[in-house]
Design a protein that fits this description.
The complex is a heterodimer of chains A (about 450) and B (about 250).
Chain A lengths: L2 E5 L2 E5 L2 H7 L5 H6 L6 H12 L18 H8 L3 H4 L7 H9 L5 H7 L5 H8 L4 H10 L4 E2 L3 E2 L6 E4 L8 H13 L6 E4 L6 H17 L6 E3 L3 H9 L7 E4 L4 H6 L4 H14 L9 E5 L3 H4 L8 H12 L6 E5 L11 H17 L4 E4 L10 H13 L4 E4 L4 E2 L4 E2 L3 H11 L5 H9 L24
Parallel strand pairs in A: 5-6, 5-12, 6-7, 8-9, 9-10, 10-11
Antiparallel strand pairs in A: 1-2, 3-4, 13-14
Helix pairs in contact in A: 4-16, 6-8, 8-16, 8-17, 9-17, 12-14, 16-17, 17-18
Chain B lengths: L27 H19 L4 H11 L6 E4 L5 H6 L1 H4 L4 H7 L9 E10 L2 H17 L11 E4 L5 H9 L1 E9 L10 E7 L10 E7 L6 H18 L21
Parallel strand pairs in B: 1-3, 2-3, 2-4
Antiparallel strand pairs in B: 4-5, 5-6
Helix pairs in contact in B: 2-6, 6-8
The chains are: A alpha/beta (about 450), B alpha/beta (about 250).
């Protein structure tokens, strides 16, 4: 179906829904690269006005990627709940924004609405929102998940501890783990990106992380971010797998480029559930996503990168993950050019994930060929904390020496806790206090050279 | 200032551990160290490659024959970064320059393209040493094309260059995306039967080539092992597994 809007006596035409969505998207380099961006700010405004007038129900009639050739579209349509949708079924996208910002949209009504929203509806309304809207609506959403601790409670912020090493050296990885724990990080997950995807490395890292968690009875979970097929193999081999990780995208072809399908994710989910390693809950999956992955895989079908990203959340939520995060600045300046684009994308991703019911966090990060720096990350993490982000990622000194990019540091987590009064997952925070690492306000205590954790390397 | 009593573990990892803290924040010395590293990484991306100086170094390796200089279709660094597609094809003039005269069919077993990629620092400092090691280890039965030196180039520029040179195999040596802790790493990509449209799955890659990583001698050893297998199998990529057995890709800090 074609759409149009008249602005100052000029009629702007948009041949289909995906074009309308793309043209209404705030400017970013990836959509320009894909050739789907608005040609001018005036065209973008016309598209946003046309989008504001569009009934939300239109998204249930016109898929942006054909269902015949895309299993993600089929998942989105088959899992849509008409009853949950009914409170907003009569609204346009513009009315929906107004409703989301009103007092009627509270934690209970937003929770009830989730199964009635499709990723495309959520992406669409985000395109009409300013950053403050993305923050204030996301802040009203509450998503709580559990494995060995409780993530997402009010007033908390969790951290993934990312102790990567450029050669998967076990002692080097453990040194990073120790650094993070001593700074009070690691409640979301202790998650290592391996250099090598081979089974020997995977087994070694899984055993090492499990040993640390068992030895010190740490109420947290480990993950080695190898390909999902390798992790299934590890589970079948009896290796200690807590969370199963996979990078996912918002189209079937993107996922094919990652070497996965929904069936493979289902198999992984079932296998992880069967191990029963969670002590307080059974959210066993961990996903990463990021705007631009579909274009990078030449699998975007002319859909803008932010809508593709929201569709990836449609995939994620089907598997009840413990955590899911956008890796927002990792992909490079051809997709998100500078700090401004990275910050906007991070807030959009968090908003869309939360509205769809995901325990969503963010790898607030940048590469050295993007026009961004540590000040931009300060802005992004401060805004995300204001928006109630579920978790962030910390690496020693913000420098990932394996992947060659900058994320946040363990110090950054302390800053956010100090400024916003944010606590850790309660089980993890209680453990840190037992280990004499925290005072009763959750602040770090000085440690001596004889602290038991420092014996980890001996 | 709070010092961290696990600074002794720093020898185990190049990661920035045990930095200490000023309140909740990085101490000034660590803040400035990170700033310096970022500045160096930015310079590695943006500093123009001194093609004359590198050309002179390469000429010494080839008995005085200067490298053929080409440019991608990306007219400057900023468009190079935003438009990867432009960095993957030659400028019109460079294409004319490499196009053989009518009736003349060029051919060689291996072409070597040296390119700036995302770290001009890496290329300026280490490319000549790596090319020298490759050339001096070349088996006698391999016909090697004159060296080609490209600017504003991505890996896939080698597909067009290799096709125009009639190369059975092309090796593209270029600067990798710089990190905070290593800004001068090179990558080498081998592609059998190069032509535009080849995918990354059809290439073999040697990465982490820098003084703390893979040495020029190891690069040469691995390249010629892979080149021999590529010629035997008539392919490169995921179906050509590196079993060259040279010392691993481990950095000095590992």
């Amino acid at each position: 179906m074609a759409y149009q809007h008249t602005l100052d006596s000029r009629v702007w035409h948009f041949p289909d829904l995906k074009t309308l969505l793309a043209k209404a998207t705030p400017h970013r380099s990836g959509d320009v690269l894909a050739g789907v961006a608005a040609d001018s700010p005036v065209e973008r405004t016309a598209a946003r006005m046309a989008l504001a007038d569009l009934p939300l129900s239109r998204f249930l009639e016109e898929p942006v990627v054909p269902a015949e050739t895309d299993e993600v579209t089929r998942l989105i349509f088959e899992s849509h709940c008409r009853d949950a949708f009914s409170p907003v079924a009569h609204l346009t996208v513009g009315d929906f924004r107004d409703w989301l910002l009103s007092d009627a949209a509270d934690e209970a009504s937003l929770t009830a609405l989730r199964p009635g929203l499709t990723p495309e509806m959520v992406a669409a309304v985000s395109k009409l929102m300013r950053q403050q809207d993305l923050i204030s609506v996301a802040r009203k959403c509450r998503v709580v998940t559990r494995f060995r601790n409780t993530i997402g409670l009010p007033g908390t912020l969790a951290m993934r501890l990312q102790p990567n090493h450029p050669a998967d050296d076990p002692r080097g990885v453990l040194a990073g783990v120790l650094d993070g724990l001593m700074y009070g990080c690691g409640d979301a997950v202790i998650g290592v990106n391996p250099v090598s995807d081979d089974m020997t490395t995977l087994a070694m890292l899984l055993r090492n992380l499990d040993e640390v968690i068992q030895r010190f009875a740490i109420p947290t979970q480990a993950c080695v971010l190898a390909h999902v097929s390798s992790q299934i193999e590890a589970i079948n081999a009896g290796l200690p797998v807590d969370l199963v990780f996979q990078s996912i995208g918002g189209t079937e072809a993107t996922n094919r480029s990652f070497g996965i399908s929904l069936a493979m994710l289902r198999e992984a989910h079932d296998a992880a559930l069967a191990t029963g390693r969670g002590t307080v809950g059974s959210n066993v999956m961990y996903f990463e996503t990021g705007q631009g992955s579909a274009l990078s895989a030449n699998a975007h079908h002319g859909v803008d990168q932010q809508t593709c990203e929201a569709r990836a959340y449609g995939v994620a939520r089907a598997f009840d993950p413990l955590i899911c995060n956008t890796v927002v600045g990792f992909i490079g300046p051809e997709y998100l050019h500078d700090g401004k684009q990275i910050i906007r994308a991070g807030l959009e991703d968090h908003f869309c994930g939360k509205l769809l019911g995901l325990p969503i966090g963010c790898d607030a990060c940048y590469t050295n060929h993007a026009e961004a720096d540590a000040d931009d990350m300060d802005s992004l993490m401060t805004l995300l904390a204001t928006a109630g982000v579920t978790f962030l990622i910390g690496v020693p000194g913000a420098d990932d020496v394996m992947l060659g990019y900058q994320s946040l540091s363990f110090h950054d987590a302390l800053y956010l806790r100090e400024v916003f009064g944010l606590r850790r997952a309660p089980e993890f925070e209680a453990w840190l206090a037992e280990m004499d690492l925290l005072d009763r306000h959750g602040r770090l205590l000085p440690v001596s050279t004889r602290h038991p954790l420092l014996s980890m390397q001996t | 200032m709070v010092e961290d009593p696990w600074a002794g573990l720093r020898s185990l990892t190049p990661a920035r551990i045990a930095l200490g803290r000023a309140g909740h924040a990085l101490p000034t010395r660590e803040l400035l160290a990170a700033d310096e590293a970022h500045a160096r990484a930015r310079a590695a991306v943006h500093a123009p490659l001194d093609v004359d100086a590198l050309g002179d170094q390469l000429r010494e390796l080839t008995g005085g024959v200067p490298p053929v200089r080409v440019e991608s279709a990306a007219p400057d660094r900023s468009r190079y970064l935003l438009r990867p597609d432009l960095g993957r094809r030659l400028s019109a003039e460079s294409r004319r320059q490499l196009t053989p005269p009518a009736g003349h069919a060029p051919g060689c077993d291996l072409a070597i393209l040296i390119a700036d990629g995302l770290s001009t620092t890496a290329v300026a400092r280490h490319a000549a040493a790596v090319v020298g090691a490759i050339l001096s280890a070349a088996p006698a039965d391999w016909r090697i094309a004159p060296l080609v030196l490209a600017t504003q180039a991505r890996v896939a520029l080698g597909d067009e260059v290799g096709e125009l040179l009639g190369a059975r195999l092309i090796a593209v040596l270029l600067g990798e995306r710089p990190g905070l802790s290593c800004q001068e790493s090179l990558g080498l990509y081998l592609t059998w039967a190069p032509r535009p449209g080849r995918t990354d799955a059809e290439r073999n890659c040697l990465s982490n080539i820098h003084p703390g990583g893979l040495s020029p001698a190891n690069v040469a050893h691995k390249l010629w092992w892979l080149a021999g297998e590529a010629r035997r199998l008539s392919l490169t990529g995921v179906h050509l597994k590196d079993r060259s057995g040279a010392a691993g890709l481990l950095g000095e800090n590992s």
